[in-house]
Amino acid sequence: MLRKALPVVLLAVFAAGVAAQTTPQTNSPATGATQTRPSTPFELSEYGVAVQPDARLIIMMAALDAAGFDPTPPGKEPSAFRKLVRKDQANLDPALRERLQNFFQRYKLPPPATAADQAARYVSLAYAMGQQPLLDAPERSEDLPGGVLEVLDFAPLLREFYRKSGIDERLVSHMRAYQAEGDRMRPATAEMVRSVLSYLHTRPIIVSTERVRVKSPDKKNSSVMVYSTREHERKFYVVPDLLAAPGAINFRVIADNYYAIVPEGTDPASSELRRGFLQFVIDPLVLKFNKEIAQQREPIKQLIAARTKADGVTSLDPFVVVGRSLVIAADVRYEEANRLAWVTELQRARLQQAKSDAERKAIAAEADSARASIADEAIARLAEEYENGSLLDFFYADQLRDVQSSGFDIANFFAELTTGIDPARESKRIADATGARDRALAARKAHPRYSTWLIDPGAEARDAADNSRNTKLLKNLTEIEKLLQIRNYEEAESRLKSLLQEYPGDARLLFTLGQTASLWARDTTDDEQQTQRLNRALANYRLAVAAATPETDQALLSHAHESMGRILAFLDQKPEALKEFDAAINLGRVKGGAYDDAVAGKRKLSQP
Questions:
Q1: Is residue 111 domain-shared with residue 160, that is, in the same domain?
Q2: Phi-psi bin for 27: left (phi > 0), alpha (psi -120 to 50), beta?
Q3: Which of 149, 185, 167 is nearest to 56 (CA)?
């Protein structure tokens, strides 16, 4: 038996190294007014955020797979986890499988619905049901989330699937795989949350209050209306889903709980997830300042009426327009500020290496071109969302410039944000954006890696030679990560050693060899074998540190030092463990790094 539990090792740090070959090779500068590093770890729970799997979702998606739901793109192989689920469910009762398939086919959405669209209603149903083993179905009501009524009769089939498929016995191992994906996402999720809140200079409201009528304590005057206040905790859940449609985030709001269900490999910095978190932050502010918004009801209604008359857009509620528009404006301005900061960072780094005035002028001209393209892209995004009903996004985008430069908490500035709406001006926004929008659309078509080109226009030419080689390596490493998820450590190690012959001394391969040995040790019950594998992990982590490039591999270095610290602490080598934790901490809060985990590990060693 193991002497004590080994912690789960974060998977896929190598992706940051591969991505560095196709993105500007510098750390993302912090945005917002505060750029100093926190003295204590960034705890997601303090901001109402949790990264955790949900057993109901796992059961639902496994049942859907048995029903014939398959989001695997044509010509691609199913994921390693989907193959494992199908193998486990090969002996499912044929009659039950047929009923599952019949239901799914009967209620299948017509084209052009995507795989994500097909799954969305069932995901909503999963969150409307009770926890296992009962999996109670919700009462049939018009108040249920959109689409749930259409598939509500799937609930009895799901309960039967839970009883007969044996998935209850496999949930522990399934949850481990989901938790590993959650561990991979957690550091980047924390960085996204920290960065967004820094940009808005605020903290989310994580407790909501509700005014409810209660019985009068005075029985003689029972007709007197008495009210009390109840508090509800607000949470933003990031839920990994290894059986989801690739590249599609399902976002659900159920009362005070916000759920972002994300497929395997999702970058938490992606716009969809970030926008969901922004909605979590902004929704309670719209509710809190409803009186101030109500004072602007008439100009907003005029704008809605003008848009409805021009385009036949369905009439919207003014409060919905305000909330949606502010979320979009904040997301666009946040991304624009990030990109501009990258451009300035790259320009500064290249000017330091420039050897002539002509080279300096070329660098400055390229940076100016990038800034102009970034501005065009921001306007194009605002215009697209305006046409989808965010009729005040240009207005709020202008207002947010002042908030960003002032450093004020958006919650304290909210009332001022909503004053001065001019329907005539806002109705002309699309026409005024035509030139910038056309330039942005043309650039999107012309540049396959558009996001990179916006920041670094010369990146396409510089990276062309290395692109094929890095793509091949990334594909191999992604396949190896899937082997680790299903605990096929022997095959993973064998493939990594073969790849090292083709990519000798590659820090990412060496690091992943260290991960493989560490995970293998965690699942080993023989003490001697466990120690051998841990020492092999240490050796490979040290080789990875020696092979890494400090300028481009800081995330890898951070995780390598932190991983060595945890292994050495497990082996009761406290002084050496402290050195490794300190090495990770000294690298700072690098993007995708292990700063918080290193601080926590060091603090744990210091406890008596």
A1: yes
A2: beta
A3: 167
Tell whether 30 is covered by a domain. no
List, for residues 33-57, the tens digit of each pLDDT value: 334 444 456 899 999 999 999 999 9
Q: Which residues contact 488 (CB under 8 A, 6 or more apart)?
A: none
**CB distance 6 to 570 below 8 Å:** yes
Both tokens assigned to 36: 């100093």
Length of the chain measured in residues: 608
Q: How many angstroms separate the CA atoms of 411 and 566, rounded?
A: 40
Output 466 or 435, whichever has higher pLDDT.
435
User: What is the average pLDDT value for the chain, to the nearest integer?
Assistant: 87
Q: Could you list the residue range(s) of the whole structural domain that residue 446 is in?
A: 291-455
DSSP state of 7: P
Residue 97 within a domain: yes
> Which alpha helices (DSSP H) does 523-573 contain, by range?
527-547, 554-570
DSSP codes joined into one string, 78-106: PPHHHHHHHHHTTT--HHHHHHHHHHHHH
pLDDT digits (tens, 9 = 90+) for 426-462: 999 999 999 999 999 999 999 988 998 999 988 777 6
Is 582 among the domain residues? yes
Bridge partners for 237 per DSSP? 50, 259
Predicted pLDDT at 591: 86
Looking at 423-563, which runs of residues are DSSP E strands? none
Q: SS3 string of 31-84?
A: CCCCCCCCCCCCCHHHHCEEECCCHHHHHHHHHHHHCCCCCCCCCCCCCHHHHH
Calpha distance 268→47 (Å, rounded): 16
Provide the domain count of the chain: 3
Instruction: Tell me the C-alpha distance between 194 and 250, whole Å.
Output: 22
What mean pLDDT comes out for the span 291-308?
90
368/349 Cα distance (integer angstroms) = 15
Retrieve residue 162's tokens.
Answer: 């839970």
Residues 335 and 403 in one domain: yes
- Angstrom distance (rounded) from CA 180 to CA 52: 10
Question: SS3 for 205?
Answer: coil
Helix (H, G, I), strand (E, B) or coil at 517: helix
- Above pLDDT 90, what percent of the chain? 68
Q: Can you spell out the DSSP letters for 572-599?
A: T-HHHHHHHHHHHHHT-S-TT--HHHHH
